[in-house]
């Protein structure tokens, strides 16, 4: 497939990297100010004819980008990744092709994004197309059009989620370094621990997450000492408020 990405910022570049890595599709990355330099990805000012276009600009730039690329987008399937911008608003600004929203995350760059899709009118052909496109970047899930509002929660949880995990990784690596570990080893241990913990949780979807916590924390042991501090600081409440704040922000962006 020929895929055109409009916007070569953080997400657009991550998507292009992911498609290049997957190797099945030809990718054009449309820029506004500066062409990106990504081997195997063609930087363009205007999109050539493509099979699907992905909009990866800030919500406030959506209108301008759609106007600029309007003639090319006529009749072309369009997928918007812009947080908060509803299908109804997009539909007012483009003519033709199937229309969808996608909420991926930057892990797309390494084929590890779980992308949630929402397709106008739940069109089966459009759904098949966007699942194929975003399937090249990891897993996909679909929410029905009637539940489009769920994308605000998805944006808050998994769209922004990598940043929360990096904050945790950063803190863990610094804590290890403060205890005397070599910074490189501390970083590797933090990253590999999160990778391993996620792999185990993914391997056992039927096991409740609090049970996995108990499998590490024996009464009176080292993990309990740490968990006591995290609970005193209300880590759960803090994360809950953080994700809610992101969802509220997403709901106001459209
Ligand atoms: N970052 C993430 O992890 C993430 C995750 C999920 C969803 N998203 C969504 O993805 C979208 C982009 O986010 P981002 O973080 O990648 O923002 P960003 O880094 O600011 O990138 C946006 C890019 O769009 C370009 N642009 C604006 N108007 C354009 C036009 N008319 N034609 C071509 N390019 C144009 C900008 O070019 P200039 O260089 O001229 O400014 C900029 O490079 C947002 O709507 C966001 O909600 C982001």
Summarize the structure.
The protein is α/β, with parallel strands linked by helices. Helices cover 51% and strands 15% of the residues. It has an 8-stranded mixed sheet, with helices on both faces.
Structure description:
- By secondary structure, this protein is an alpha/beta fold.
- The protein has 2 domains: 2-153, 3-Layer(aba) Sandwich (Rossmann fold), CATH 3.40.50.720; 161-253, ProC C-terminal domain-like fold (Orthogonal Bundle), CATH 1.10.3730.10.
- Helix content is 51%, strand content 15%.
- It has helices at residues 10-22, 62-68, 70-73, 87-93, 124-135, 150-159, 161-178, 183-203, 209-216, 222-232, 235-253, and strands at residues 2-6, 26-30, 42-44, 52-55, 78-80, 99-103, 113-119, 138-142.
- It has an 8-stranded mixed beta sheet, with helices on both faces.
- Helix 5 (124-135) links the parallel strand 7 (113-119) and strand 8.
- The chain is elongated, with a radius of gyration of 20 Å.
- Bound molecules: NADP nicotinamide-adenine-dinucleotide phosphate.
- NADP nicotinamide-adenine-dinucleotide phosphate (NAP) binds at residues 6-12, 30-34, 56-59, 61, 64-65, 68, 81-83, 103-106, 159.
- The site of NADP nicotinamide-adenine-dinucleotide phosphate has 28 residues, from helix 1 and helix 2.
Spatial ordering of strands, largest sheet:
3-2-1-4-5-6-7-8
**H/E element string?**
EHEEEHHEHEEHEHHHHHH
CATH superfamily caption of the largest domain: NAD(P)-binding Rossmann-like Domain
Helix amount, in percent? 40-55%
The CATH class of the largest domain = Alpha Beta
Q: Note the total helix count.
A: 11
* Category by helix and strand content: alpha/beta
DSSP summary, beta strand count: 8
Mean pLDDT: 96
Strand coverage percent: 5-15%
Biggest sheet details: 8 strands, mixed
Ends distance: 30 Å
**Poorly predicted sequence stretches spanning 5 or more consecutive residues:** none
Report Rg: 20 Å
Shape: elongated
The domain tally reads 2
Do you know the CATH architecture of the largest domain? Answer: 3-Layer(aba) Sandwich
């Amino acid at each position: 497939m020929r895929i055109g990405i409009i916007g070569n910022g953080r997400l657009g570049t991550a998507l292009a990297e992911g498609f290049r890595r997957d190797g099945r599709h030809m990718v054009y990355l449309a820029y506004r100010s500066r062409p990106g330099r990504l081997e195997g990805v063609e930087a363009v000012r205007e999109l050539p004819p493509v099979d699907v276009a992905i909009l990866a600009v800030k919500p406030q730039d959506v209108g301008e980008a759609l106007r600029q690329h309007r003639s090319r987008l006529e009749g072309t399937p369009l997928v918007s990744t812009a947080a908060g911008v509803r299908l109804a608003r997009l539909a007012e600004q483009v003519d033709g092709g199937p229309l969808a929203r996608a909420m991926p995350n930057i892990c797309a760059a390494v084929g590890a994004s779980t992308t949630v899709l929402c397709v106008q009118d739940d069109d089966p052909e459009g759904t098949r197309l966007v699942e194929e496109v975003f399937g090249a970047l990891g897993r996909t899930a679909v929410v029905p059009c009637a539940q489009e509002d769920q994308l605000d929660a998805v944006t808050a949880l998994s769209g922004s989620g990598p940043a929360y995990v990096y904050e945790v990784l950063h803190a863990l690596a610094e804590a290890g370094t403060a205890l005397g570990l070599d910074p490189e080893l501390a970083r590797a241990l933090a990253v590999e621990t999160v990778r391993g913990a996620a792999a185990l949780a993914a391997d056992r979807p039927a096991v409740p997450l609090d049970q996995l916590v108990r499998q590490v924390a024996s009464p009176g042991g080292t993990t309990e000492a740490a968990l006591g501090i995290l609970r005193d600081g209300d880590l759960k409440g803090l994360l809950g408020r953080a994700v809610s704040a992101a969802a509220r922000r997403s709901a106001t962006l459209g």
